[in-house]
Amino acid sequence: MYFDTDRVAGYADVLARVGDNPYTRMALSDRSTAYVTDHTVAWLTPTPWASLVSLSANTDAAAELFTELHRSGRIPDGAWLRVPLPAHRFHGVAGIRLREEWQFRWTTTPPPVHRREAEVIPLSPVHHDALEELLKEGNPDTVVRVRAPGIHGWYGMWDGGRLVACGADRSFGGVGYLAAITVRPGRRREGLGTALTAAMTRRLMAATGAVGLGVNTGNHGAIELYERLGFDEVVEVATFEVADGARHGHP
């Protein structure tokens, strides 16, 4: 099916069409390109970690718009596609693979002060080996690695010369963003994750005014923690990877 798509004029126009909130701003930059139909908007943003494609709906029209944009070469293989949940319409689209279903949560209010926040300190390149070891043990499935592009810095907590908790600042689009929040196995339920998240949120909020993070929809313990810290605004999202050969209808 052919779509008579129009390029949206710019950043402000996209926000006006889909909603000005931290989730949208985290997926936008001055390099974004947007396409609109009567029923949906798709916008493409180069980011340091992947080409990001966002859709404002999960309807048949949204799936058809994505398919046409990819078929015509405007969405590259390897891009990440984000659509709102529930994303049932996209499970049948050829050439994309589900990566995860997750929540983007954000807050514009500083969290309650935690008694151990002072233990959270910025980390430097000399700590990269310790970070690698902690992530390998405590968060092996994270896509955020120590030297990944788009990371502005790492924070951590130490105990007896051993790194016991860490998190990354992956802010983008004028929104603070916490990534790869990790607590060493065996040291959980001590308040380390709460202290780390609270301290990082407070520091990034001072610079950006809004802070977001992502959490898997099935991680109920983390969701409860983030709610206690004020991350009450939520968008539920499915992320798909655009697979090689999708333009030709291959799985």
Please provide a written account of the structure.
A hairpin with a 4-residue loop joins β2 (33-36) and β3 (41-46). This protein has a 12-stranded mixed sheet, sandwiched between helices. With 251 residues, the chain is of the alpha+beta class. It starts with 5 loop residues before the first strand and ends in a 9-residue tail after the last strand. The protein folds into 2 domains: 6-103 and 236-248, Aminopeptidase (3-Layer(aba) Sandwich); 109-209, 3-Layer(aba) Sandwich (Aminopeptidase). The protein is built from 6 helices and 12 strands. The chain has helices at residues 11-18, 22-26, 60-71, 128-138, 192-208, 220-228; strands spanning 6-7, 33-36, 41-46, 51-55, 80-84, 96-107, 121-122, 153-159, 162-169, 176-183, 211-216, 233-242.
Alpha-beta classification: alpha+beta
Radius of gyration: 19 Å
* CATH topology tier name of the largest domain: Aminopeptidase
Number of domains: 2
Helix content: 10-25%
Largest sheet: 12 strands, mixed
- Mean of all residue-level pLDDT scores: 91
Beta content = 25-35%
Please give the CATH class of the largest domain.
Alpha Beta
Question: How far do the termini sit from each other?
Answer: 20 Å
Identify the strand order in the major beta sheet. Answer: 1-2-3-4-5-12-6-11-10-9-8-7
Q: What's the order of the H and E elements?
A: EHHEEEHEEEHEEEHEHE
At CATH level 2, the architecture of the largest domain is: 3-Layer(aba) Sandwich
Q: Outline, from the CA principal axes?
A: elongated
Total DSSP helices: 6
Uncertain residue segments: 245-251
Number of strands: 12
